Amino acid sequence: MTEVLSTPTSGASETVRAQHRHLTETLPFHDVTDFENARRGFVAALEPGVVTAAGGRVVWDNDSYDFLAGEAPDTVNPSLWRQSQLNAIQGLFEVVPGLYQVRGLDLSVMSFIEGTEGVVVVDPLISVETAAAAMALYRAHRGERRVTGLLYTHSHADHFGGARGIVDQEDVDAGRVVVLAPEGFTAHAVAENVFAGTAMSRRAGYMYGAALDRGPLGQVGAGLGQTTSTGSMTLVPPTLHVTRTGQEEVVDGVRMVFQLAPGSEAPAEMHFLLPDLRALCMAENATHVLHNLLTLRGALVRDPHEWARYLTEAIELFADDTDVVFASHHWPTWGHDEAVRFLSEQRDLYAYLHDQTLRMLNAGLVGSEIAEVITLPPALENAWHARGYYGSVSHNVKAIYQRYMGWYDGNPANLWKHPPTEAGRRYVALMGGADAVVAAAREAYDAGDFRWVAEIVSHVVFAQPDHQPARDLLADTFEQLGFGSENGTWRCVYLSGAHELRHGVFGTPATTASPDLYAQLTPEQWFSALAIRVDGPRAWHLRLSLAVRLTDVGEAYVLTLGNGVLTSGSARPVDDVGEGDADLVLTLDLPTLARLFSGMLPPEGFADAGVEATGDLAVLARLTSVLDEPDPDFAIVTP
User: Fold this and answer.
1) What pLDDT, on a 0 to 100 scale, did the predictor assign at position 595?
2) Nearest to residue 371, comparing CAs of 402, 335, 414, 346?
């Protein structure tokens, strides 16, 4: 792509400024309770608030948000500015005696529960480096307590990625560290980050604004936290699974009572009560935002009906024994009554969106129509913790519609639409050519109708990607939409689109794939991941079979490629498969299979790796010849 060097606009339009004035006048900015709670129990900050990897590469820089002071500039939504100020408060905090948190060192929060001999750590951030920095900050003020337990509340990478920054595998293997997680944790953690990992990571670069400059014209925060760290992601597998609500465990003298919440914010998630501290951890199901039902990076649509039910169940199970609610993002809520109100309003938020969307879709409205007309009750509209800083009413309603009704809205006109480039060419021709579209769009831009400008000028960019006036106008438009966004991820998405229109594709700043994740793939997951990469048309006429005998797990599989589909049969005893069952038979262990399928072990290295190969080795070359490599740099705002 030819580099584009148009410059950003100098400020927000009058349309955006008027929107900001309205929010300032209508939202309860006089309520500073969140600021008091975000600073409550402060012990010490990391000075400077910068974390580096080996070699000095910066993986986290909270000090880059020092500009978040005073009143919001006109280029930032004042409500988002407030949320970002809160999220940027960094350091070690005492929640109650014996329970501490480090906040502001990653997108997520790391908690420490002090036990008899050491400390149980909850959710070790995204990166080894930030987790180690948080651990060091805790120990600097609470003593050199060893880690006796590690708890993952759910299966998203910002809650397990830094594990090896605080524990050694040797201690886990020896039983000196217990690693707890909800049932299904490993399978979901691995699948989400491998099967669609390339596309999700590329889109996450937009969602978190990782390539944007920090400042009033750029990235100011992502609502759930400031942004994602960019260090090394790891995974220490669990040694103890929570399999039922009501399950109780004691680790290093710390009593925990668990509630499973699968299919809520994550496919594997759990809450837990610390009865001796009267503290309730809600994982990521009750935070100081309206969360996502479908993230902008992409994911399976979450179930708001179940989400709300779990919150009701948590109140019923734990409210009488709770004086403080904390989570793996943001700051706690203290006081029994305040905690119950907070949980109840969070519950009502997801239940209301679910029920009202279903009511309206049953009246014939489609997702985009519901998103335009739905209004939250005043108590939720004015609750800071229910504002759409990360999820939004708009895209959550569309996600609920998608969950129940799918992508098709029932209108035959939308059943078989042209893809973006072909649609763009036709729209541009219909409207009199690219220059005419841009001229009309400039009038709409001056009138503040930025959503319409984005829609019609995007057609020009997809029809004629080198049309510089269209690219410039679309970048300016995305910028205004970003400046007006209360939602942190919407702002990042819009400004990232503007950035790439002006400067070219920035790629994927951070990826969730890591050796630790690949090491946890089951044989079936490896074969599924391989099948996803088969270029069907190139493989239509290819026929081959490959048997894999895994000596360490005692299982064997026969893979066949036909009609462009790679199929793996059910597991069989390893001795039941041998020469003659496939064109090529490989005998090896699971770690070596991982090296083979990740491209780290060529056939010439089989002997040294202990791989036995019987049959036609050319089968591997024929198979790899039809495998696609994922593209982490694919275009988003251009064809």
Assistant:
1) 87
2) 402
Q: Are strands 270-274 and 118-122 parallel, antiparallel or unpaired?
A: unpaired
How far lies 71's CA from each of 31, 81, 489, in Å?
A: 15, 8, 21
Backbone phi and psi for residue 450, each to the nearest 5 degrees, phi listed first:
-70, -30
Q: Distance (Å, rounded) from C-alpha 594 to C-alpha 192?
A: 18
Q: Is 489 helix (H, G, I), strand (E, B) or coil?
A: helix
How confident is the model at residue 8, as a pLDDT?
58
> How would you classify the pairing of strands 279-281 and 324-326?
parallel
Taking residue 620's Cβ as centre, other Cβ atoms within 10 Å add up to 18
Bridge-based pairing of strands 99-103 and 91-96 is antiparallel
Residue 411 CB: number of other CB atoms within 10 A? 8
Chain-centroid distance of CA 162 in Å reads: 15
pLDDT for res 10: 67
SS3 label, residue 486: coil
pLDDT in tens, 7-33: 556 699 999 999 999 999 999 999 999
Output phi, psi for 222, to 5 deg. Answer: -115, 15
Question: What CA–CA distance (Å, rounded) separates 370 from 373?
Answer: 5
CA distance 126 to 612: 38
In whole angstroms, give the CA distance from residue 188 to residue 410: 32
Enumerate residues 6+ apart whose C-beta is below 8 A from 611.
586, 587, 588, 592, 596, 601
- Residues, the chain, total? 639
SS3 627: strand
0.90 exceeded by pTM: yes
Minimal CA–CA distance to 110: which of 186, 511, 184, 99?
99
Q: Looking at residue 511, what is its pLDDT?
A: 72
Amino acid code (one letter) for 466: D
| Helices assigned H by DSSP within 72-158 | 78-87, 128-142
Apex 590 CA angle, 585 and 591, nearest 5: 120
- 243 Cβ partners below 8 Å, 6+ apart? 183, 260
